Each structure stands twice: as structure tokens, then as C-alpha cells.
Amino acid sequence: MKIVHMADSHLGFSAYGRVDRWGRNQREEMIYQGFGKTVERIIDLAPDAVVHAGDVFHHVRPRIRPLYVFKQNLEKLVGAGIPVIIISGNHDAPKSYAAQSPFALFEGMEGVHIAHHYRYERFELGGCRFHCIPFCLGPEDYLEEFRKMQEFRMENPSGRDVLVMHGLVEALWDRRLRTVGEHELKESFLKGDFSYIALGHYHGQAQVAGNAWYSGSVEYFRFSEAGDEKGLLLVDLDSGNVEKIPIREEYMLDLDPIDCASLSSREIEAAVAAVCDDVGIKERIVRLRLKDLSREAYRSLGHRFIGELKSRALHLEILPEFEEDHATFETEPMDSKELPTEFQKFIEGEAAKGDITPAITKDVVSYGTDLMARISEKRTTESFDAPK
């Protein structure tokens, strides 16, 4: 028997504020398109079942659009004769018994088996038992549901069992996402004699025990995921072989920083353009750091140049890391009598760069130097009344 293991689709996730010609968030639409491609690839693989290990939706109260996209693609899988097993994750499970789960809409759908009631449930398909422990309200609840499952297995032994859970195993706790309802899974959960353990929540593909895997997400959601392998896992339960199935090209890039020490603004622009052209940023999500950058060079970067680059990417973050942020400077205390002169030099310097119009430079200098002089004069007194 072969199954496809997937997780963390996060349908409904949106970001960056860019919209298409219909006013729809481009990032959100990109994820819907990726989900459709994923389902097409699964149909090509023709597994005996699909296991989704949680976080189908990004929100516990998804809007109509993600619900429709999910239903449409479920129908494609079932129509191709591929049954689907789903558990709820921390994102798409209500945090109260009183709230309604979005998965209630899909209960009773032919070929679709969903565990989302905060308790252990099992489904039998093709001679295999799928033991599902969905999102639970408290960390201690997982132990109780796991105990129930083990009791059932002892009384009803089977030759083929798959465990499906959503959470972060202890060994990966330092990689936690710090999201609501993020629960730690005990290592003891991974030591049963299961044919396979399908885990969700961690977005990278990872083998955490001999037969326990995170499939990861198909999409990229954080820059910490840039460089991760993404896709599905095709699992042969008879042989134990796990094959990684890529779905999309890498589109999130966290680039090496550019060393901007001693570079002029024009030289920095040339370096940034060269890096962006080299990796290809069109319709991609990119982060680029400018290391040891002077504030003067940063202020002089061309707004049109940066704007043109950002228009090419789906999202481009250029993060300045200023040189003084990494160094400690020892300075001589300034005599307060020098304040008017220093202020005048500063304003004239800004005016020379075009940051202050010539029409107001004289007034700013006159008002500012007068104010600084009065500060100097009154420095030893208890009161100071600045002109309003």
C-alpha cells in the first residue's frame, strides 16, 4: 500500500498587500494555485490514500474562498478514487469545545475521513488502520488519547498501522513557531511499532525517527524556511521506503548579505542590481541585507531604483544593517556653546543633498541656531521657555 503524506497547506494565508487585477491578495492566490498543483501531482502518483497531517486552513474561521478551494480539490481526489484522511492542526482547530470546526462542513463526504473532535479516531482503508490524534486543547490530552489508542491496539492487533499527529516533537522544540496552540509531542509517541508515523506542524521535511516523518509544507511561509526542501512524501508501507516529491520551484530567497563598507550609494545600487539579476527575483519573495552600511549612503539610495526592483518581485525586503550598530564609539563631550555652529553645519549639509529646500533653509538655520544659543545660555538655570 502506498500513501501520500502532506501537511500545513495553510489555505487562506495572505501577506504583503499586493493584489491582482481582481483585488485578490497575490500571496494568498499563489497558495491556492500551489494546492491545486499538489492535488494534480497526487492524482498522477495514484496512491492508495492521502494523509493530511493538519493545518489545512490558516485560520480557524476560514472565509468562503479557502473553503471552496479545499472542497473543489477534495472532490478531484475522491473523483480519482483516492481516499483522504485529515486531522485538524493548531491553526484550523477551535480553541474551545463550544466553537464549531470548519471541518464540520466536510463530514460525511464520500471518501473523506476527518478527525477533528479533540480525540483519538481511527479509520480503516485497504487493510491499514490510520490512528489519528488531532489537535487537543491541552498538552496532557495527547497522553490520554495516545493511551486510548494503545489500549485498542493491544486488544485488536493489526499487521499495518499508521499514526497521524500534529505538533512539534521534543527534539525540534527549539524550532517552534510560537503560534497559538503549538504543543510539544513526547518522544515516546514515536516508539510504537507503527508501519509509519505521519506528522504535521514543522514546515521542513524531516525524518525524526526510523519511521516517523514530517512531510513539511509545500509552500514557504517564513524566511527561516528559505532553503528548506518542500513537497510531499510518497510512502510505501510495505517496504518502508519514503520518497520526496517536489512540487514547486524554490521561490523564497534569503540572500547572503552585501558588504557595503566603504561603498558609495551608486556602488551599492550596482551591487544590489547584480545580485537580483543573478538569482532572478521575478515573482519571488526575497530578503537582502546590506551589511555595514553608512546612513549617508542609505539616504542617498535612489527611490526609483528600489521601487523598480520591488515591482519585479512578489516581495522584496532590503534590510539595512548600519555600521555604527556593530561598533562602540568613544566621543568627546561637546561644549554646549558649539551647538549652534554644529546645527548650522548639519542643516546646510542636508540642504546640499536636496533633503531641505533652499526656500526654508535660511529660516531653519536662523530659528535653530537661535534656539541652540538660548539653550546654551540657560543651561545652568532651572527653567527654559522655548518660543512656540
Quick recap:
The chain is an alpha/beta fold and 388 residues long. It has helices spanning 26-45, 64-79, 139-155, 265-279, 295-299, 303-312, 339-352, 358-378; strands at 2-6, 49-52, 84-87, 112-115, 121-125, 128-133, 161-166, 168-169, 184-185, 196-200, 206-209, 212-214, 232-236, 242-245, 252-254, 258-259, 285-293, 315-322.
Word description of this protein:
This protein has 8 helices and 18 strands. The relative contact order is 0.10. Helix 1 (26-45) links the parallel strand 1 and strand 2 (49-52). The protein is 30% helix and 21% strand. The strands form 4 sheets. Strands 4-3-2-1-13-14 form a 6-stranded mixed sheet, covered by helices on one side. Strands 5-6-7-10-12-11 form a 6-stranded mixed sheet, covered by helices on one side. Strands 15, 16, 17 and 18 form a 4-stranded parallel sheet that branches. Helix 1 (26-45) packs parallel to helix 2. By secondary structure, it is α/β, with parallel strands linked by helices. The termini are far apart.
Number of strands: 18
- Count, helices: 8
Work out the radius of gyration: 29 Å
Q: Overall 3D geometry?
A: elongated
Poorly predicted residue ranges: 327-335, 379-388
Strand fraction: 15-25%
Distance between the termini: 81 Å
Quaternary organization: single chain
**Biggest sheet, in brief?**
6 strands, mixed
Strand order of the largest sheet: 4-3-2-1-13-14
Order of helices and strands: EHEHEEEEHEEEEEEEEEEHEHHEHH
The overall pLDDT, averaged over residues, is 88
